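User: Quick one: structure for sequence A, then sequence B.

Assistant: Sequence A:
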Amino acid sequence: MIKNIKIIIFDWGDTLMRDYNDSGPMAHWKNVDIIPGVREVLRELGKNYTLCVASNAGESDSELMKSALKRVGIDNFFSYFFTSKDLGFEKPDIRFFKAILKSTNFSANECLMVGNDYNNDIVNSKSLGMSTLLFDENNLFSDTLSADYKINKIIQILDILKP
């Protein structure tokens, strides 16, 4: 159980929705899908935590992000939407994470960053004092990395955050 967490910040591509590396904004892709278990995870976590999406999706601003999330029926779970296009910084730039903290008015120790890219999602969010969870769906990363938690199925986050 992670204590004091109030907000969960999710990466978007290959953490919430499958990234098919299609061209243009994801909202306009022919095929869009969620990662298996995401809807159940968001439904449960939304009962106790503020949920946020933060992405390097350079072709999408937050409105296009919301449109893509709406296509798969998960947009309504989130209170905050951030893209590098809107913030002016890309992960892993520490200013990306600091901008999110400033916009949401949460302190770093109240945040859990969930992402599938160790260097982009985990390293600098952890250096700011956020708790971190690496979603390693294909077991690409060593267990010795400094993420606080590592899972390979998104549904496992519920075991980590259960009261």
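Sequence B:
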Amino acid sequence: MNLGRTAKLVAQAFDAALVEAGGTLPVWLTLLSVKSNGLANQRELAGMIGIQGATLTHHLNAMEGQGLLTRRRDPVNRRVHLVELTEAGEALFETLRQAALIFDKRLRTGLPDERLAEFAQVLAILRDNVGA
């Protein structure tokens, strides 16, 4: 229960930080995934972000309408759409990246590196236990 409540509070606070910076979590995750992997197709993006293809299409439509990214057909496989950031998308990515870094620094305040490393190990064990 404690883990769930804490995760929910942290997620809400991170969402609020992104909104204050002019974005949302889905926009941030999409921009981050495209930026990290260069030109990506929609199916790959959905997998990286962890959402269904239809949900991603909804987000991509909105982001394309805002001028943050472009989609075009893959010349090798016309059924695949390739996604690429525009200049506006690159600018928003940088703004949201700064907001994420500031949030991360605030979140880690008072936690020494060795405690953070131990916490990461505990989280990994919890994930493994759930998967077992």
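The longest strand covers residues 69-73. The chain has six helices and three strands.

User: Thanks, that's what I needed.
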